[in-house]
Design a protein that fits this description.
Number of domains: 2
Largest sheet: 5 strands, parallel
Number of strands: 7
Shape: elongated
Number of helices: 13
Order of helices and strands: EHEHEHEHEHHHHHHHHHEE
CATH superfamily of the largest domain: Hypothetical protein af1432
Oligomer: single chain
Distance between the termini: 58 Å
CATH topology of the largest domain: Hypothetical protein af1432
Strand order of the largest sheet: 2-1-3-4-5
Strand content: 5-15%
Length: 364
Protein backbone atom coordinates (compact mmCIF):
# COMPACT_ATOMS: atom_id res chain seq x y z
CA UNK A 1 0.00 0.00 0.00
CA UNK A 2 1.33 3.42 -0.94
CA UNK A 3 -0.20 6.08 1.29
CA UNK A 4 1.46 8.89 -0.70
CA UNK A 5 -0.98 8.33 -3.55
CA UNK A 6 -4.01 6.93 -1.75
CA UNK A 7 -4.73 8.43 1.64
CA UNK A 8 -8.08 8.40 3.36
CA UNK A 9 -8.52 10.37 6.57
CA UNK A 10 -11.60 9.95 8.76
CA UNK A 11 -12.75 13.03 10.68
CA UNK A 12 -15.18 12.58 13.57
CA UNK A 13 -16.73 15.70 15.17
CA UNK A 14 -20.29 16.60 16.16
CA UNK A 15 -19.83 20.23 14.98
CA UNK A 16 -20.29 20.81 11.24
CA UNK A 17 -18.00 23.82 11.06
CA UNK A 18 -15.10 21.83 12.53
CA UNK A 19 -15.61 19.14 9.92
CA UNK A 20 -15.70 21.74 7.15
CA UNK A 21 -12.47 23.43 8.29
CA UNK A 22 -10.52 20.19 8.67
CA UNK A 23 -11.90 18.80 5.43
CA UNK A 24 -10.72 21.88 3.55
CA UNK A 25 -7.24 21.72 5.10
CA UNK A 26 -6.86 18.01 4.35
CA UNK A 27 -8.14 18.27 0.79
CA UNK A 28 -5.65 21.07 0.16
CA UNK A 29 -2.98 18.50 1.01
CA UNK A 30 -4.28 16.25 -1.76
CA UNK A 31 -5.86 13.65 0.54
CA UNK A 32 -9.36 12.17 0.62
CA UNK A 33 -11.64 12.80 3.61
CA UNK A 34 -14.46 10.85 5.21
CA UNK A 35 -16.57 12.66 7.79
CA UNK A 36 -18.86 11.55 10.59
CA UNK A 37 -20.91 13.57 13.10
CA UNK A 38 -20.84 10.85 15.77
CA UNK A 39 -18.93 7.77 16.85
CA UNK A 40 -21.81 5.52 15.82
CA UNK A 41 -21.75 7.01 12.33
CA UNK A 42 -17.96 6.63 12.21
CA UNK A 43 -18.12 2.98 13.23
CA UNK A 44 -20.73 2.28 10.56
CA UNK A 45 -18.58 4.00 7.92
CA UNK A 46 -15.51 1.99 8.90
CA UNK A 47 -17.46 -1.27 8.63
CA UNK A 48 -18.66 -0.37 5.13
CA UNK A 49 -15.33 0.83 3.75
CA UNK A 50 -13.42 -1.49 1.42
CA UNK A 51 -10.16 0.09 2.59
CA UNK A 52 -9.61 1.41 6.09
CA UNK A 53 -8.57 5.04 6.64
CA UNK A 54 -4.88 5.62 7.18
CA UNK A 55 -5.53 8.25 9.86
CA UNK A 56 -8.42 9.22 12.16
CA UNK A 57 -9.00 12.67 13.62
CA UNK A 58 -11.51 12.52 16.46
CA UNK A 59 -13.07 15.10 18.71
CA UNK A 60 -13.07 14.19 22.41
CA UNK A 61 -16.26 15.78 23.71
CA UNK A 62 -19.20 14.28 21.78
CA UNK A 63 -22.70 13.15 22.86
CA UNK A 64 -23.50 9.49 23.61
CA UNK A 65 -20.00 8.12 22.90
CA UNK A 66 -17.00 10.40 23.39
CA UNK A 67 -13.63 10.35 21.66
CA UNK A 68 -11.93 8.46 24.47
CA UNK A 69 -14.39 5.58 24.19
CA UNK A 70 -14.06 5.65 20.39
CA UNK A 71 -10.28 5.40 20.61
CA UNK A 72 -10.52 2.53 23.08
CA UNK A 73 -12.90 0.70 20.71
CA UNK A 74 -10.51 1.13 17.81
CA UNK A 75 -7.50 -0.13 19.76
CA UNK A 76 -9.33 -3.21 21.04
CA UNK A 77 -10.30 -4.26 17.53
CA UNK A 78 -7.46 -6.13 15.73
CA UNK A 79 -8.86 -4.84 12.43
CA UNK A 80 -8.43 -1.15 13.36
CA UNK A 81 -5.89 -1.05 16.17
CA UNK A 82 -3.06 -0.08 13.82
CA UNK A 83 -4.80 3.14 12.59
CA UNK A 84 -3.23 6.26 14.15
CA UNK A 85 -5.71 8.37 16.13
CA UNK A 86 -5.22 12.13 16.64
CA UNK A 87 -7.54 13.89 19.06
CA UNK A 88 -8.96 17.29 18.10
CA UNK A 89 -10.33 19.26 21.06
CA UNK A 90 -10.31 22.44 23.06
CA UNK A 91 -9.53 20.26 26.09
CA UNK A 92 -5.82 20.77 26.62
CA UNK A 93 -5.11 20.00 30.28
CA UNK A 94 -2.27 17.60 31.05
CA UNK A 95 -4.72 15.04 32.46
CA UNK A 96 -6.75 15.17 29.22
CA UNK A 97 -3.63 14.58 27.14
CA UNK A 98 -2.36 11.78 29.37
CA UNK A 99 -5.70 10.00 29.21
CA UNK A 100 -5.75 10.23 25.42
CA UNK A 101 -2.22 8.91 25.03
CA UNK A 102 -2.90 6.12 27.52
CA UNK A 103 -5.79 4.96 25.34
CA UNK A 104 -3.53 4.78 22.27
CA UNK A 105 -3.84 8.18 20.60
CA UNK A 106 -0.67 9.36 18.87
CA UNK A 107 -1.15 13.14 18.96
CA UNK A 108 -3.39 16.09 19.82
CA UNK A 109 -4.51 19.06 17.69
CA UNK A 110 -5.98 21.94 19.69
CA UNK A 111 -8.93 24.08 18.68
CA UNK A 112 -9.16 26.60 17.08
CA UNK A 113 -7.25 25.03 14.19
CA UNK A 114 -4.07 26.47 12.75
CA UNK A 115 -3.81 25.08 9.18
CA UNK A 116 0.00 24.88 9.26
CA UNK A 117 -0.05 22.94 12.52
CA UNK A 118 -2.79 20.59 11.27
CA UNK A 119 -0.83 19.88 8.09
CA UNK A 120 2.42 19.33 9.99
CA UNK A 121 0.90 16.84 12.44
CA UNK A 122 -0.98 14.96 9.72
CA UNK A 123 2.14 14.71 7.53
CA UNK A 124 4.22 13.52 10.47
CA UNK A 125 1.88 10.70 11.39
CA UNK A 126 1.20 9.67 7.80
CA UNK A 127 4.96 9.30 7.29
CA UNK A 128 5.22 7.28 10.50
CA UNK A 129 2.29 5.14 9.41
CA UNK A 130 3.89 4.56 6.01
CA UNK A 131 7.13 3.52 7.70
CA UNK A 132 5.22 1.07 9.91
CA UNK A 133 3.42 -0.39 6.88
CA UNK A 134 6.69 -0.78 4.98
CA UNK A 135 8.37 -2.32 8.02
CA UNK A 136 5.52 -4.80 8.44
CA UNK A 137 5.70 -5.72 4.75
CA UNK A 138 9.48 -6.11 4.92
CA UNK A 139 9.17 -8.27 8.01
CA UNK A 140 6.56 -10.38 6.26
CA UNK A 141 8.84 -10.86 3.26
CA UNK A 142 11.80 -11.62 5.52
CA UNK A 143 9.78 -14.12 7.52
CA UNK A 144 8.75 -15.83 4.29
CA UNK A 145 12.36 -16.02 3.11
CA UNK A 146 13.42 -17.46 6.48
CA UNK A 147 10.50 -19.90 6.47
CA UNK A 148 11.43 -21.07 2.97
CA UNK A 149 15.05 -21.57 4.00
CA UNK A 150 14.03 -23.48 7.12
CA UNK A 151 11.69 -25.64 5.07
CA UNK A 152 14.49 -26.31 2.60
CA UNK A 153 16.90 -27.23 5.39
CA UNK A 154 14.33 -29.51 7.02
CA UNK A 155 13.65 -31.18 3.67
CA UNK A 156 17.37 -31.77 3.16
CA UNK A 157 17.64 -32.95 6.74
CA UNK A 158 14.80 -35.42 6.26
CA UNK A 159 16.28 -36.68 3.01
CA UNK A 160 19.60 -37.40 4.73
CA UNK A 161 17.85 -39.12 7.63
CA UNK A 162 15.68 -41.10 5.23
CA UNK A 163 18.78 -42.28 3.40
CA UNK A 164 20.35 -43.32 6.69
CA UNK A 165 17.20 -45.21 7.70
CA UNK A 166 17.09 -46.95 4.34
CA UNK A 167 20.75 -47.92 4.68
CA UNK A 168 20.12 -49.46 8.10
CA UNK A 169 17.01 -51.29 6.96
CA UNK A 170 18.60 -52.65 3.81
CA UNK A 171 20.63 -54.95 6.06
CA UNK A 172 17.58 -56.50 7.71
CA UNK A 173 14.26 -55.97 5.94
CA UNK A 174 12.97 -58.22 3.18
CA UNK A 175 10.91 -55.49 1.53
CA UNK A 176 13.12 -52.52 2.31
CA UNK A 177 9.99 -50.49 3.03
CA UNK A 178 9.57 -51.03 6.77
CA UNK A 179 10.79 -47.54 7.63
CA UNK A 180 8.40 -46.05 5.04
CA UNK A 181 5.52 -48.06 6.52
CA UNK A 182 6.36 -46.82 10.00
CA UNK A 183 6.56 -43.21 8.84
CA UNK A 184 3.25 -43.24 6.99
CA UNK A 185 1.35 -45.34 9.51
CA UNK A 186 2.57 -43.26 12.46
CA UNK A 187 1.14 -40.21 10.73
CA UNK A 188 -2.19 -41.99 10.14
CA UNK A 189 -2.40 -43.18 13.74
CA UNK A 190 -1.55 -39.71 15.06
CA UNK A 191 -4.30 -38.26 12.87
CA UNK A 192 -6.74 -40.75 14.36
CA UNK A 193 -5.67 -39.80 17.88
CA UNK A 194 -6.53 -36.16 17.17
CA UNK A 195 -10.17 -37.16 17.64
CA UNK A 196 -9.55 -38.95 20.97
CA UNK A 197 -10.44 -36.78 24.00
CA UNK A 198 -7.22 -37.73 25.80
CA UNK A 199 -5.00 -36.65 22.94
CA UNK A 200 -6.87 -34.03 20.88
CA UNK A 201 -5.13 -31.17 22.72
CA UNK A 202 -1.69 -32.76 22.48
CA UNK A 203 -1.60 -33.81 18.85
CA UNK A 204 -1.37 -30.78 16.58
CA UNK A 205 -0.86 -30.65 12.83
CA UNK A 206 2.80 -29.88 13.52
CA UNK A 207 3.01 -32.99 15.75
CA UNK A 208 1.63 -35.10 12.88
CA UNK A 209 4.08 -33.68 10.33
CA UNK A 210 6.97 -34.15 12.76
CA UNK A 211 6.18 -37.74 13.72
CA UNK A 212 5.92 -38.67 10.03
CA UNK A 213 9.53 -37.53 9.56
CA UNK A 214 10.96 -38.59 12.91
CA UNK A 215 9.53 -42.11 12.78
CA UNK A 216 11.91 -42.88 9.90
CA UNK A 217 14.70 -43.07 12.43
CA UNK A 218 13.16 -45.34 15.06
CA UNK A 219 15.70 -48.12 14.43
CA UNK A 220 18.70 -45.98 13.45
CA UNK A 221 20.69 -47.58 16.28
CA UNK A 222 20.70 -50.92 14.45
CA UNK A 223 23.46 -49.49 12.26
CA UNK A 224 25.86 -50.51 15.06
CA UNK A 225 24.44 -53.99 15.69
CA UNK A 226 26.73 -56.73 14.32
CA UNK A 227 25.45 -58.61 11.26
CA UNK A 228 25.82 -61.93 13.09
CA UNK A 229 23.07 -60.79 15.46
CA UNK A 230 20.97 -58.54 13.23
CA UNK A 231 20.78 -61.07 10.37
CA UNK A 232 20.54 -64.23 12.45
CA UNK A 233 17.73 -66.47 11.17
CA UNK A 234 17.26 -68.45 14.36
CA UNK A 235 16.43 -67.37 17.89
CA UNK A 236 18.83 -65.04 19.63
CA UNK A 237 20.68 -66.11 22.74
CA UNK A 238 20.16 -64.09 25.96
CA UNK A 239 23.51 -62.42 25.34
CA UNK A 240 22.57 -61.56 21.75
CA UNK A 241 19.22 -60.18 22.92
CA UNK A 242 21.09 -57.90 25.32
CA UNK A 243 23.22 -56.60 22.46
CA UNK A 244 20.18 -56.15 20.21
CA UNK A 245 18.43 -54.09 22.88
CA UNK A 246 21.27 -51.58 22.88
CA UNK A 247 20.05 -50.26 19.53
CA UNK A 248 17.51 -48.03 21.32
CA UNK A 249 20.08 -46.13 23.36
CA UNK A 250 22.65 -46.22 20.55
CA UNK A 251 20.09 -44.73 18.15
CA UNK A 252 19.30 -41.84 20.47
CA UNK A 253 22.97 -41.18 21.13
CA UNK A 254 23.74 -41.30 17.39
CA UNK A 255 21.14 -38.64 16.67
CA UNK A 256 22.40 -36.47 19.52
CA UNK A 257 25.98 -36.83 18.25
CA UNK A 258 24.96 -35.80 14.74
CA UNK A 259 23.39 -32.61 16.04
CA UNK A 260 25.83 -31.85 18.83
CA UNK A 261 26.40 -28.12 19.11
CA UNK A 262 23.44 -27.32 16.87
CA UNK A 263 20.09 -25.90 17.90
CA UNK A 264 17.61 -28.70 18.48
CA UNK A 265 14.21 -28.59 16.78
CA UNK A 266 10.95 -30.53 17.08
CA UNK A 267 12.10 -33.03 14.47
CA UNK A 268 15.30 -33.97 16.24
CA UNK A 269 13.79 -33.91 19.74
CA UNK A 270 11.00 -36.24 18.68
CA UNK A 271 13.35 -38.49 16.70
CA UNK A 272 15.54 -38.93 19.79
CA UNK A 273 12.52 -39.78 21.97
CA UNK A 274 11.25 -42.30 19.42
CA UNK A 275 14.63 -43.98 18.91
CA UNK A 276 15.23 -44.19 22.67
CA UNK A 277 11.81 -45.21 23.95
CA UNK A 278 9.90 -47.05 21.21
CA UNK A 279 10.52 -50.37 22.97
CA UNK A 280 9.21 -49.22 26.34
CA UNK A 281 6.06 -51.06 27.44
CA UNK A 282 2.95 -49.52 28.95
CA UNK A 283 3.25 -51.79 32.01
CA UNK A 284 6.92 -50.93 32.63
CA UNK A 285 8.43 -54.18 31.33
CA UNK A 286 10.11 -52.66 28.26
CA UNK A 287 13.60 -51.28 27.66
CA UNK A 288 15.98 -49.47 27.92
CA UNK A 289 14.64 -47.53 30.94
CA UNK A 290 11.62 -49.54 32.05
CA UNK A 291 9.37 -46.51 31.76
CA UNK A 292 5.68 -47.00 32.48
CA UNK A 293 2.45 -45.47 31.18
CA UNK A 294 2.55 -41.72 30.64
CA UNK A 295 6.26 -41.69 31.49
CA UNK A 296 6.83 -42.92 27.95
CA UNK A 297 6.82 -40.03 25.45
CA UNK A 298 3.66 -40.05 23.33
CA UNK A 299 5.49 -40.22 19.96
CA UNK A 300 7.36 -43.33 21.16
CA UNK A 301 4.09 -44.96 22.28
CA UNK A 302 2.58 -44.34 18.86
CA UNK A 303 5.58 -45.69 16.97
CA UNK A 304 5.76 -48.74 19.28
CA UNK A 305 2.23 -49.73 18.28
CA UNK A 306 2.86 -49.08 14.60
CA UNK A 307 6.24 -50.85 14.63
CA UNK A 308 4.89 -54.05 16.16
CA UNK A 309 1.83 -54.01 13.93
CA UNK A 310 4.05 -53.76 10.84
CA UNK A 311 6.46 -56.40 12.12
CA UNK A 312 3.61 -58.85 12.73
CA UNK A 313 2.28 -58.30 9.22
CA UNK A 314 5.60 -58.26 7.40
CA UNK A 315 8.28 -60.78 6.51
CA UNK A 316 11.60 -60.81 8.33
CA UNK A 317 14.70 -62.96 8.05
CA UNK A 318 13.50 -64.87 11.11
CA UNK A 319 9.74 -65.09 10.24
CA UNK A 320 7.06 -65.15 7.58
CA UNK A 321 4.34 -62.52 7.40
CA UNK A 322 1.25 -63.10 9.55
CA UNK A 323 -2.41 -62.54 8.84
CA UNK A 324 -4.29 -59.38 9.75
CA UNK A 325 -6.61 -61.38 11.98
CA UNK A 326 -3.75 -62.87 14.00
CA UNK A 327 -2.05 -59.50 14.20
CA UNK A 328 -5.14 -57.78 15.59
CA UNK A 329 -5.60 -60.52 18.21
CA UNK A 330 -2.04 -60.01 19.42
CA UNK A 331 -2.43 -56.22 19.50
CA UNK A 332 -5.63 -56.52 21.56
CA UNK A 333 -4.02 -59.04 23.91
CA UNK A 334 -1.08 -56.70 24.52
CA UNK A 335 -3.29 -53.64 25.08
CA UNK A 336 -2.51 -52.32 28.56
CA UNK A 337 0.61 -54.49 28.70
CA UNK A 338 2.99 -53.59 25.90
CA UNK A 339 0.82 -50.83 24.46
CA UNK A 340 -1.09 -47.76 25.54
CA UNK A 341 -4.67 -49.15 25.55
CA UNK A 342 -6.19 -45.94 24.21
CA UNK A 343 -3.83 -45.95 21.24
CA UNK A 344 -4.68 -49.60 20.52
CA UNK A 345 -8.39 -48.79 20.53
CA UNK A 346 -7.80 -46.13 17.87
CA UNK A 347 -5.57 -48.52 15.90
CA UNK A 348 -8.35 -51.13 15.79
CA UNK A 349 -10.67 -48.54 14.24
CA UNK A 350 -8.32 -47.14 11.60
CA UNK A 351 -5.80 -49.88 10.73
CA UNK A 352 -7.46 -50.24 7.30
CA UNK A 353 -5.89 -46.89 6.44
CA UNK A 354 -2.41 -48.27 7.11
CA UNK A 355 -0.06 -49.38 4.35
CA UNK A 356 2.49 -52.17 4.06
CA UNK A 357 4.92 -52.18 1.18
CA UNK A 358 2.93 -49.42 -0.52
CA UNK A 359 -0.35 -51.35 -0.40
CA UNK A 360 -3.35 -50.89 1.92
CA UNK A 361 -3.11 -53.36 4.80
CA UNK A 362 -6.65 -54.68 4.36
CA UNK A 363 -5.83 -55.87 0.82
CA UNK A 364 -3.11 -58.20 2.02
Amino acid sequence: MNVKHKVKILIVDDVDINLDILEEIIKSMGHETITALSVKEAVALIEDLEELPQLILSDISMPEIDGYAFCAMLKKNPHTRHIPVIFISAMDSMSDLEKGFALGAVDYIPKPFEPAEVQMRINTHLKMYQMQVELAENNKRLNQVVANQIEKLHAEQKNIMSAMAKLVESRESVSGRHYLNISYNSKVLAQGLQFHPLYEDRITDNFIDTIESSAYLHDIGKIKIPDAILLKKGSLTPEEITVMKTHAQVGAETLLDIYEGKEKNDFINMAVDIAYYHHENWDGTGYPKGLKGEEIPLPARIVHVVDVFDALNGERIYKQSGTIEDCLKIMEAESGKAFDPDIVQVLLKIYRNFVRDNKPVHWL
